[in-house]
What we know:
Number of domains: 1
Strand content: 15-25%
Number of helices: 5
CATH superfamily: SPOUT methyltransferase, trefoil knot domain
Distance between the termini: 40 Å
Shape: globular
Amino acid sequence: MLNIVLHEPEIPGNTGTIGRTCVATGSRLHLIEPLGFQINDKTLKRAGLDYWPALDVTIYSSFEDFLNRNPQLQKPDVHLYMSTTKAHHLYTEVSYGPDDYIMFGKESAGIPEEILVNYEDTCVRIPMNADIRSLNLSNAASIVLYEALRQQDFAGMQHDGQLHRLHWDHS
């Protein structure tokens, strides 16, 4: 199961939207404190809709707490990718494993350089115009998560859709 990690997220609507995306994709959400909101914030719940109770979410007191409580990160086949505008590699240039972690930083500052410096090889970036500082956090998380899922052929996910009231015309 893929893992989305938010380091000190500040905007409850972004976290709620990412939580909803995690439920839709069967991914886990990891939140590293301090959070810029209360976990019961109405904006967080509104963005997550009625999916929030189905979310597999864990909250950590610090990055060190996150590392200590996820010993699987020590396995050679599990990676912790850092999504950052400072990366050398594009998010499409790496091979994501089914149990990998993808971390995103807070909206105002990203992932602290004190953390990034230890993960140079697993830092990834989303290309964008040079005059833009960053993408919206929930959009960035969706972009990278869906690339990881695409690489795994969307395993376990619904691949076809159905109309609700009408039927497709197959003539």
